[in-house]
Amino acid sequence: MAASLQRTLGPFNINRFLSPPKQACLRYINGPTVDLSHSIHAPSLSDPPPSPQHDRRSRLPSDFLSSLRARHPGLDVSINPYDLDSHGRGESHHPTAAPDAVIRPTRVEEVRDILTACCRERRVEGEDLPIVEIVSVIPYGSGTSLEGHLQFLQRAEDEGSPGADEGEIKDIPTSCFTVRDDEANAYKKVRIKRKGGISVDMCNFQFIGEVGDDAFVRVGAGVTRNALNEALRHTGMQFMVDPGADATIGGMSACAASGTAAVKYGTMRDNVLAMTAVLPPTTILSANDEATASNNATSKVVNLGCNALKSSAGYNLPALLTGSEGTLGVLTEITVKLHPLPAYVLAASCAFDDLHCAAEAVANIRMMGVPVSRIELLDEMSIQAFNQSLIMEGCGDGGEDDAGALRLKPMELKPTLFIEFASHSEISAHEDLSAAKNICVADFGGKNFVSAADESTRHSLWAARHRLYYSAIALRADGGDSDSPTAQSTIVTDVCVPLSHFADIITDTANNVRESGVVGPCFGHAGDGNFHCILPLKKNDTKEYRDRVTAIIENMINRAISVGGTCTGEHGIGYGKKKYLAKMYGEGGVLMMEALKKSIDPWNIMNPGKIVDNDSYGGHDIVTEN
Amino acid sequence: MKILVPIKRVIDYAIKIRVDPTKGAQGVQLSNVKMSMNPFCEIAIEEAIRLKEKTTAEVVAVSIGPKQCTETLRTALAMGADRGIHIETKADVRGDYIDMQPWGIATLLKGVVEREGGVDLVLLGKQSIDSDCGQTGTLLAGLLNAPQATFASKVDRGDDGSFTVERETDSGTEVIKLKPSAMPAIITCDLRLNTPRYPTMPNIMKAKKKPVQTISLEDMVKELGLNLDEVLTPKNEVIEVYEPPPRKEGEMVGDVMELLAKLKEKGLVA
């Protein structure tokens, strides 16, 4: 195995990538609850005094925050427990795992210096060996991620156990340090300690460039997609990737966001042209290296990609960072593609007796080349969720939506397609609609095909789809009691399969849900073969119920992989889906991902524990102490 | 129906306003700052377009300001206005952040209404987001002796030429009817009246060809027989502009007793 890999990957030292994985069992720590009965000291903006009553002890190196603030006076640093908690979670069921500080930089130089400070050597009075302190970093956008991307995982050794404070003793090549203080020896014995984590919140990166006559714009990583489109409202162009949430462009790039518009405009992978990123340090800042000049910063700022729509110039680095989930660096600015606002839009919906037929209709519409700008499929349970939400809002057969007096009526309890057609011309939009209608009704038994052109009717036609997420959670709500499911207790999972298998897989999953007796509406971005299952959970759910839910998810993913699909179409790997990577790609693929991670982030500073593991020490052959 | 919509070019609503110390006591940083149509003016344009779509109407946008106002007028044309009138001021007329004041603007607009002739309705934003004066619409109605309704959240036109307007007030919604009159109805628009459309590329292209008449402020004043000094002289003087003081860090207290003690100390509680 090693030999064949060596042939494929070349003459560099393969052994470091084949070292046996450490015994680290990655587990997370639930965020501590802030107990208000304790006396809470006013948190100072320098390092917190170790207070025995403080629920949470900062794991950061004692001078980490103060040295950064000395370098950048006015740097926004927060250790407020609520701030920390909110930066240790996204919008998923994954439990909160908070950082030790939240930093909100305003300039790329601050980001560079923050990352440099995350990999330092220190000599401490009374310690026998020099210490190498590694601090984890997770970049933060809007906090809408769905697979635990924002959680600060900790390894078992980092906490509580003997040796946790002592770190691990390793011999590190002196070339890993910025200053070689001992020319004679090739190795240096140090104690390596992981010292907590910081959230780098990109909210201050709000730059929006001029659009001019081109179809792209440069934006700061903290700009949300709604703010961007508002700023573009008079240019006739819009940023078309729509994941539902008001995510930041940086977050959307890092997680390769997608959504309902992907069937026409592609995902982030198709809409990112260029970016500026700050890479994590590959060398350790030596204890006697002040790094006062900017060229001593071990972290590097890189500009990737270009503004041309096509380029064959070298490795596709923006593509590598798009979807890297914060594991390879911090994005500070991104150039994204824009598309013209369609001149004419039509919306339609069509009910089917059978989910399988509805899904087949979609595949057919795509294979026949009928252009659609959105095509979504909701199963019966999703429609039921919508109808129930109308009842709960007290509008039996017609209700007001907040978008200005839409009369919403319950829909027929059947799997339903929601389609949108957009074109530069009214005639061609109507032609696309007729072609799709023909396929749905004549070939696949669709009933009640309705369409609309004006905005408010289009809005009410699509209401069931727009309200789906919260109405699905509310399916298990019991009159608003404290035990009802919330977004934080709901599992939203997703898979994507080739179109030829879409009908089978979504039908299997919906049947699985029904037969298991759980609540799990299925819906999908059907034109891409991508569908989700929303599984709300309650605090008092039995283990048996949760096991049934887990089984459904496992089945769905395994089936998807078995037909050449993916364990995640949009939401990403985070830490919950790492186990599926080997199933999808085999060992070689995973090793290649680990090789990339180890070469770009050898000290595992960036979002450790997500996508792949990096248990090496700086990616080098380390002579382990016996 | 002929609808006149005065629009104002202001600092974009999403930009954080900075005080410019070099401009003395009154300066707001205007250089390299994104400028856009006042959001309430956008709502007024949108309402005019919607009325035009329901009946037949000509929508005329008018703006008073430096040469960049033509861009603002092009946005109005892209949204659906038929033509524009730009009363161009010299760059240095726009001095403090209030620029030309409502009295001067209303005086000019009265002249524009009379010069146009046959104007049935003037739709304005209820206020501009830079000066927040909220006076131009009402002053114009007074100068014209015209019926007016402010803070409109719904506008309906009757077949007899009357306008039924729902107004948002602090105590609820008021519905009033503006009787048909020789003078145009003056309606100022509030936030909930509509959501302005985003113009599409074809409309933006078409807008480039729609006519915009540019006339200098001096020439317009002469043509209207007005007094330039009266139009330009401010009736209010801006004494000072300053940013709100930065928020002070809160004081953490240990428990309710300490909170009560501190509140008493600060004289906030007896």
UniProtKB/TrEMBL annotation, chain A:
Residues 95-341 form the FAD-binding PCMH-type domain. Residues 84-94 have a biased composition (Basic and acidic residues). Its cofactor is FAD. It is found in: Mitochondrion. This is D-lactate dehydrogenase (cytochrome). It comes from the Eukaryota. Its main location: mitochondrion. It is an enzyme of class 1 (oxidoreductase). Keywords: FAD, Flavoprotein, Mitochondrion, Oxidoreductase, Transit peptide. Pfam families: FAD-oxidase_C, FAD_binding_4. One of its GO terms (molecular function) is D-lactate dehydrogenase (cytochrome) activity. Its EC number is 1.1.2.4. PROSITE patterns: FAD_PCMH. Belongs to the FAD-binding oxidoreductase/transferase type 4 family. GO terms for cellular component: mitochondrion. Residues 39-59, 76-98 are annotated as: Disordered.
Automatic annotation (TrEMBL), chain B:
This is Electron transfer flavoprotein subunit beta. Belongs to the ETF beta-subunit/FixA family. SUPFAM superfamilies: Adenine nucleotide alpha hydrolases-like (SSF52402). Pfam families: ETF. The keyword Cell division does not apply. Heterodimer of an alpha and a beta subunit. Keywords: Electron transport, Mitochondrion, Transport. Its main location: mitochondrion. It is found in: Mitochondrion matrix. GO terms for biological process: carboxylic acid catabolic process. The electron transfer flavoprotein serves as a specific electron acceptor for several dehydrogenases, including five acyl-CoA dehydrogenases, glutaryl-CoA and sarcosine dehydrogenase. It transfers the electrons to the main mitochondrial respiratory chain via ETF-ubiquinone oxidoreductase (ETF dehydrogenase). GO terms for cellular component: mitochondrial matrix. CDD domains: ETF_beta.
